[in-house]
Design brief:
heterodimer, A: mainly alpha, 11 helices, B: about 325 residues, MetI-like fold
């Protein structure tokens, strides 16, 4: 068994190298990754780039982009620097996107793995639970959750995780159902491994590729959901976010539409990059399917 | 005869499965809302300025908020058993009436959005598949990925800037010209004009989804033997594409359209806000803010119902279109 495990490990690690190479041969993926690295660096260094509070009034109101070289992207109705808002807003988008994905994927894996691995009554009950969540329109549910728990970064993150885990759970359940009949799982059972070990060490690594692909798309949709919440006034009131910048600029849409356009472009580019990475990961991890997509 | 029996079996299975789901949704939503700090009495008291302790007690008593949660739940279920969604403390009218006023606008908006998404999405996907690997496919793939990444509320605002502020072609909000007193065809046209922008904003995301789905489905069908046969017996390429490929590729697309109904309804909350569209999403949002939980429960329940009905219809449609679909 030791020898088979070793060969398996070697096979899988050379497989993942092949996937990494395939990923970086894709120009779109490289471009998207570079953009996300850039956004991450901007988010991390926001206090260095704009040390002042992005919610403070620093300029004459309604400066158009390019009108004053000190405020490259202009200023809003209260004289706040749009560029500073953009830089600080990237922190909220990334933090909530990644944290909500991590939490949602964890819940989804635990529920999906339990349902798919054990089957029977447990499976029936969990599938029912997933169905309840998927039958309620998720954004409506999110609005209710966040409004009830008071809008804060933590509650928004948990809310988004609560409406996204069913997707992962379904996926993981399907993977586990097909994998649990495989020979290597029977062998692991024969060796007397415990359920936890079989689930997390034997089966889960084999189920990872589709989970990874879906995770990057989930970060993208979490960022979209956060921006929609903030736009509707359900964002964290103490933090500036791209969505709240758009929400605040609605009143002046007719005269100062750049205030709506600029944060929106930031959202689109970030989400687009994440979706491009999702596509490229899918092509890299499922080489057989790449021609069909 | 056999055909009908099969469809009936599909229908029965779906209904039997739906009952516990709906019960679960009601109980879960109810308990969730009861967990919330603050109730309708608090919000109303807050709006009146101050309220004495006695007024609060009276308000709660009137709304039935002064009894234990379990008892409230049983009372709610009892109401539901009599097809009543209860009263809205806020508007002082039955919840069903409130929802009834808003439902048609939202259904129309969703229907139009779905029609746009399916129409454009299928055309886009077919175009991508027919030129697979060449430049039109690449360009359209990027376009659909952008559609997939754009927040609906933002594109809504940008469409307003372009089409109502700059060009002045379309209205920027509402569902009809108020006080215009239009009748007949003018009225219909006016309503349509108000619907174009919100429906497009709502549809864009799904255009991308259906485009990609159609592309994959068309590519798969195009490699089937019967397509080669059709081409070999000398049918013109257009006929092969439309009658043999696209028609068969539509199956997976229609199946998903029902599943997306819930998502479209969620998106409607945001789009209705952008376009001040007097619909169900707006009602839900207002009732969350006002802690008007009877209305909110009603909207949540109704939207789950809509999703379940759509799924059932899709199951039936699927079973009717594809005789291979059997009861599992």
């Amino acid at each position: 068994m030791t020898t088979t495990t070793t060969t398996e490990v070697i096979a899988s690690s050379s497989g993942s190298w092949r996937a990494v190479r395939a990923f970086f041969r894709n120009p779109a993926a490289v471009l998207a990754t570079a953009f996300l690295v850039f956004v991450t660096i901007v988010a991390l260094t926001a206090p260095l780039i704009y040390p002042e509070d992005p919610l403070s009034m620093v300029a004459r109101p309604f400066l158009w982009p390019g009108q004053n070289p000190k405020f490259l992207l202009g200023s809003d109705s209260l004289g706040r620097d749009v560029a500073a808002g953009l830089v600080w807003g990237s922190r909220i988008s990334l933090v909530i996107g990644i944290a909500a994905m991590a939490l949602g994927v964890t819940i989804g894996i635990v529920v999906g793995a339990t349902a798919g691995y054990f089957g029977g009554r447990i499976d029936d009950a969990l599938v029912r639970l997933v169905e309840i969540f998927q039958t309620t329109p998720s954004f409506l549910m999110l609005v209710v959750l966040v409004a009830i728990a008071e809008p804060r970064v933590e509650s928004i993150t948990v809310g988004i995780a609560l409406v996204t885990w069913p997707t992962i759970a379904r996926l993981v359940r399907a993977e586990f159902r097909s994998l649990r009949e495989k020979d290597f799982v029977t062998a692991a059972r024969g060796l007397g491994y415990g359920h936890l070990r079989i689930i997390f060490i034997e089966i889960l690594p084999n189920a990872l590729p589709p989970i990874i692909v879906t995770s990057s798309v989930i970060v993208a949709s979490a960022i979209l959901m956060e921006s929609a919440l903030s736009f509707m006034g359900l964002g964290d009131p103490n933090r500036i976010s791209w969505g709240s910048m758009i929400g605040a600029s609605r009143e002046t849409l007719r005269t100062a539409w750049y205030l709506t356009a600029i944060p929106g472009i930031a959202i689109v580019l970030t989400v687009l990059a994440l979706n491009m990475i999702g596509d490229a990961l899918n092509d890299a991890l499922n080489p057989r399917l790449s021609g069909e997509r | 005869m056999l055909e009908n029996r099969r469809l009936l079996r599909v229908l029965r299975r779906t209904v039997v499965q739906a009952v516990p789901t709906i019960l679960g949704i009601i109980v879960l939503n109810f308990l969730l809302l009861k967990l919330a700090p603050g109730d309708a009495a608090d919000v109303m008291a807050g709006e009146f300025g101050a309220a004495t302790e006695e007024t609060m007690v009276m308000l709660r008593q009137r709304f039935g908020l002064d009894v234990p949660v379990l008892q409230q739940l049983l009372a709610y279920l009892g109401n539901l058993a009599q097809f009543s969604l209860g009263q809205s403390p806020r508007y002082g009218m039955p919840v069903s009436e409130l929802i009834g006023q808003r439902l048609p606008s939202t259904l129309m908006l969703m229907g139009m959005a779905l029609a746009i998404a399916l129409g454009i999405g299928i055309a886009l996907g077919t175009a991508m598949a027919l030129t697979a690997g060449r430049w039109p496919d690449r360009v359209l793939s990027v376009v659909s990925l952008i559609f997939y990444s754009v927040p609906g509320f933002w594109i809504g605002l940008m469409l307003i800037v372009l089409f109502s502020v700059k060009l002045g072609w379309l209205p920027s909000g509402g569902q009809e010209t108020i006080g215009a007193g239009l009748t007949g065809i003018d009225y219909v046209l006016d309503r349509l004009k108000h619907m174009i922008l919100p429906a497009t904003s709502l549809a864009l995301f799904y255009v991308a989804i259906y485009g990609r789905l159609t592309r994959a489905a068309v590519l798969e069908v195009a490699s089937q033997d019967y397509v080669r046969t059709a081409a070999a017996k000398g049918l013109p390429p257009l006929a092969v594409t439309l009658r043999h490929i696209v028609r068969n590729a539509l199956l997976p697309v229609t199946t998903l359209a029902g599943i997306h109904l819930g998502g479209i309804l969620g998106g409607a909350v945001v789009v209705e806000t952008v376009y001040s569209w007097p619909g169900l999403g707006r009602l839900a949002f207002e009732s969350v803010m006002r802690r008007d939980f009877n209305v909110l429960l009603g909207v949540l329940l109704l939207s789950s119902f809509l999703v379940i009905i759509a799924n059932t219809l899709v199951d039936l449609l699927h079973a009717w279109l594809d005789p291979r679909v059997e009861v599992r």
